[in-house]
Design brief:
The protein contains 14 helices and 10 strands. By secondary structure, it is an alpha+beta fold. It has one domain. The strands form 2 sheets. A 7-stranded antiparallel sheet has the order 1-8-9-10-6-7-2. β9 and β10 form a beta hairpin. The radius of gyration is 20 Å and the shape is globular. It starts with a helix and ends in a 5-residue tail after the last helix. The structure holds protoporphyrin IX containing FE. Protoporphyrin IX containing FE binds next to β6, α7, α8, β8 and β10.
């Protein structure tokens, strides 16, 4: 089947015909912490305007994360120049470093570790050159804490609310996560993460409407879209939202960099691929209500299923 470039590059998240929460992380190859995908310019500009208008909602940090932030900046710049040399360069000249973003036509000369040579904190600065949300987990007392982050495209959560929280407290709202001991197992997995061996995973949900910035703080704007889904408009209005998440242990600060690259795909485009259509149908019809509720799709899931049945009787 001849797939469009968009579908070829779309990070399809499903493996089996049913979905349950699990540690679905896999070793990352190639070990790059960022990816440049279609929509780079649009998303980076959207990020920059969100950061200008709602800085405290989209960026939080504690002063003691500064060294780890510089480590993130260096890692991301190195990966941009290594994996996308036609669009980015990163050189050191004498005491200073020169980072050039050829897509945005921006050149920055700075001294590594010297905050006065950057217009923003290091994490906030480098986050403005990538589509990923960048979160920094600091490790102490055998636990992990969300101590700094730039989050412009959250999937129905709040950085300001979760800032400073431990891994388990962040995941407390997820139904069954604690009861099934998943939080313990995943925390242990993260505490054993090694520098040089990054991992990745995908998270997914269905979303009504097309919007990257679905923070809890803006729920009053996008939440009501869930009531606008009909059997007729589901194909265009509903999107599969996939988060490509990556986990890197930082060797110097021992912190963990958690990156999230959000992708949205209209339902109709997904349904154009028979195997994807069949599998999504199986997953949605079998999905436990507590997961559908938590993922915020209970109000329109049945309309999506009815739309799929109406659209593809023969194949489902
Ligand atoms: C280490 C950095 C991580 C951070 C900062 C993080 C943060 C979050 C946040 C804020 C949520 C939403 C919770 C809410 O409802 O308020 C969430 C959901 C979730 N997280 Fe994490 N997470 C991390 C790593 C992981 C890992 C490694 C896994 C699994 C291997 C994981 C599995 C999940 C799952 C299954 C959900 C529910 C998602 C859904 O159903 O849409 N998280 N995470």
């Amino acid at each position: 089947m001849n797939l469009t470039k968009e579908l070829k590059n779309f990070p399809y998240p499903f493996k089996g015909d049913t979905y349950r929460y699990s540690n679905n992380s896999t070793l990352l190859t190639p070990p790059k912490c960022i990816d440049i995908s279609g929509g780079y310019l649009k998303e980076v500009n959207l990020k920059r305007s969100l950061l200008t208008e709602h800085h405290a909602r989209c960026y939080q940090s504690y002063p003691y994360t500064n060294k780890a932030q510089w480590e993130v900046l260096e890692l991301v710049m190195t990966h941009l120049a290594t994996y996308f040399p036609e669009n980015f360069s990163f050189k050191s000249e004498g005491d200073s470093h020169i980072f050039t973003n050829h897509i945005l036509n921006e050149k920055h000369e700075f001294i590594m570790g010297d905050d006065s040579t950057l217009p923003y904190e290091p994490l906030d600065f480098i986050g403005r050159h990538v589509q990923e949300d960048l979160l920094l987990m600091m490790q102490r007392d055998g636990d992990l804490y969300l101590d700094a982050g730039q989050l412009c495209f959250p999937g129905n959560w709040s950085l300001a609310f979760n800032h400073g929280l431990s891994f388990k407290n962040i995941h407390f709202p997820i139904p069954g996560f604690k009861e099934e001991g998943l939080d313990d197992r995943i925390l242990r997995f993260l505490l054993n993460l090694e520098a040089g061996n990054p991992w990745g995973r995908k998270n997914w949900s269905l979303m009504a409407g097309y919007r990257m910035d679905t923070s809890i703080e803006t729920f009053d704007i996008w939440g009501k879209d869930r009531k606008k889904v009909t059997i007729d408009n589901a194909g265009e209005f509903v999107h599969l939202r996939v988060e490509v998440q990556k986990l890197f242990r930082l060797p110097r600060s021992n912190a963990i960099l958690f990156t999230i690259h959000t992708h949205l795909l209209p339902l109709d485009k997904l349904l154009g691929i028979p195997e994807w259509r069949r599998q999504l149908y199986e997953i949605l019809t079998e999905l436990p209500s507590h997961i559908a509720d938590y993922k915020g799709m209970s109000l329109f899931k049945d309309k999506v299923v009815a739309y799929m049945e109406q659209k593809g009787e023969s194949d489902l």
